[in-house]
């Protein structure tokens, strides 16, 4: 039987979900790993504030409870990791948040982590989380694109800004690994890495890769 991973986009943007689905293709293995990406339709168009993040916890719990019998692991595909610990309380199966997974993966790829946020107002929320993880000393800087989630579908503008911000992280702040601080950036990872010549972590891919490993090794929560 193949292992089944459910990736949940907690915002209501189908464009973000389609980008996530495309980014997962490299991790799918026919007959071994099935990765389904779904949209939480009760969510806001983009999770850009703490209020947005808090608002999706209850519908996330409801969705995971409904899907729990059919899946072996769950990934919450928002860089705020909304509801991560609440979802872990309702299932012994692996539950991964993309911010946690992306940052932990970056630790293995470089020493100074640069994070690209969507908006300046997102950064304080991210820094609180980074501090709670005990990783503040490894952060080179976090800089914003100053583009909302809906604007990330403008491919030319988004990629241009990603390159500008990544270059500033690398050259001004000496970042040697870059983390994309929004699930909506997933489709740009490979191009950005090739352009910048430093490791670029898409946190959704990092989370799903970790989920696959946990399922294959039989690692469940205590």
Characterization of this structure:
- The protein has 222 residues and is an alpha/beta fold.
- The protein has two domains: 3-97 and 204-217, Rossmann fold (3-Layer(aba) Sandwich); 100-203, Rossmann fold, CATH 3.40.50.12500.
- The chain contains nine helices and eight strands.
- It has helices at 14-23, 50-55, 57-67, 84-90, 98-107, 123-132, 155-171, 189-196, 203-217, and strands at residues 3-9, 33-39, 73-76, 95-97, 113-117, 139-144, 177-180, 200-201.
- The strands form two sheets. It has a four-stranded parallel sheet, with helices on both faces. It has a four-stranded parallel sheet with strand order 6-5-7-8, sandwiched between helices.
- Strand 1 (3-9), helix 1 and strand 2 (33-39) form a beta-alpha-beta unit.
- Helix 3 (57-67) packs parallel to helix 4 (84-90) and helix 5 packs across helix 9.
- The longest helix has 17 residues, at 155-171.
- The radius of gyration is 16 Å and the shape is globular.
- It starts with a strand and ends in a 5-residue tail after the last helix.
How would you summarize the topology of this molecule?
Layout (H helix, E strand, L loop, with lengths): L2 E7 L4 H10 L9 E7 L10 H6 L1 H11 L5 E4 L7 H7 L4 E3 H10 L5 E5 L5 H10 L6 E6 L10 H17 L5 E4 L8 H8 L3 E2 L1 H15 L5
Parallel strand pairs: 1-2, 1-3, 3-4, 5-6, 5-7, 7-8
Helix pairs in contact: 3-4, 5-9
Task: Give a quick summary of the entry.
This protein is an alpha/beta fold. It is built from 9 helices and 8 strands.
Q: If you average the pLDDT, what whole number results? A: 95
Question: Which shape, going by the Cα principal axes?
Answer: globular
Number of domains: 2
Uncertain runs are: none
Main β-sheet: number of strands, strand sense, barrel status? 4 strands, parallel
Strand content: 15-25%
CATH architecture of the largest domain: 3-Layer(aba) Sandwich
Q: What is the CATH class of the largest domain?
A: Alpha Beta
Strand order of the largest sheet: 2-1-3-4
Radius of gyration: 16 Å
